[in-house]
Amino acid sequence: MITRKSKREIEKMQAAGDLLVKCHKEIAKMIKPGITTMELDTFTEKFLAEHGATPEQKGYSGYPYAICASINDEICHGFPREEELADGDIVTIDMVVNLNGGLADSAWTYKVGTVDDAAERLLNVSKTSLYKGIEQALPGNRIGDIGHAIQTYAEGEGFSVVRDFTGHGIGPTIHEEPHIPHFGLPNKGTRLKEGMVITIEPMINEGSWQSKMDGNNWTARTVDKGRSAQYEHTVVITQDGPLLTTDQDK
């Protein structure tokens, strides 16, 4: 069932989004060669606790960590680990914050030290594809309009769009209806209505879009070892245009 959120619910989700943004900005300062993603996980759990919040994904279907940390060819749901990040890596940090029952979900891909030109381009196209999708998150549009905008842009730039994982509705739990594919046809799918809250989170690959699962049954990675990047916002559908509760540029 698709739910439309009340003004009060959206205000709580915005407060969670504001805290998530603060956490991401602290993580951005920490990411450099030599740090471990386990250190970032420990920091996140402590930071959220100090601000009266919890990492909503910890314990979700048994997931054991406060963040997902996906490195290079890992598409999503990478486990934090003690391996040090190296110069030239890219790492996606994804988290869901619960603050007084309001949820916010956002992923961001970070450069570790100095990356090559191909990685720079992958990140730029991935981030732009997110905003291409957000532009279509308007009342009266359909879910297919979002996916079509992302797919046509990313594929036009020579990249592929992951199809095995999608965005989703959010609140009061992490994953609600509807699913938000990052590919598709315009004018197809569920119609967007004011008050819906969704995540748009395209995962863009250098090579093939197909994924394979690690032995932990969580971490997905590319089948051809191409790198993958992801940017995600939590988006409220409003008559005045998309409202990003996780906007880092306010």
Automatic annotation (TrEMBL):
Source superkingdom: Bacteria
Positions with a binding annotation for a divalent metal cation 1: D94, D105, E232
Any Pfam family: Peptidase_M24
Gene encoding the protein: map
Sequence positions that bind substrate: H77, H175
Peptidase M24 domain sequence ranges: 11-239
Entry cofactors: Co(2+); Zn(2+); Mn(2+); Fe(2+)
Listed name of the protein: Methionine aminopeptidase
UniProt enzyme class: hydrolase
GO cellular component terms, A-Z: cytosol
Species assigned in the record: Lentibacillus cibarius
Free-text remark on how the cofactor is bound: Binds 2 divalent metal cations per subunit. Has a high-affinity and a low affinity metal-binding site. The true nature of the physiological cofactor is under debate. The enzyme is active with cobalt, zinc, manganese or divalent iron ions. Most likely, methionine aminopeptidases function as mononuclear Fe(2+)-metalloproteases under physiological conditions, and the catalytically relevant metal-binding site has been assigned to the histidine-containing high-affinity site.
Entry binding sites for a divalent metal cation 2: D105, H168, E201, E232
PANTHER family: METHIONINE AMINOPEPTIDASE
Reactions catalysed according to its record: Release of N-terminal amino acids, preferentially methionine, from peptides and arylamides
UniProt key word Hydrolase: yes
GO terms, molecular function: initiator methionyl aminopeptidase activity; metal ion binding; metalloaminopeptidase activity
EC number(s) recorded for this UniProt protein: 3.4.11.18
Highest classification ranks of the organism: Bacteria, Bacillati, Bacillota, Bacilli, Bacillales
Keywords noted in UniProt: Aminopeptidase, Hydrolase, Metal-binding, Protease
Assembly with partners or alone: Monomer.
Sequence similarity: Belongs to the peptidase M24A family. Methionine aminopeptidase type 1 subfamily.
Keyword Metal-binding: yes
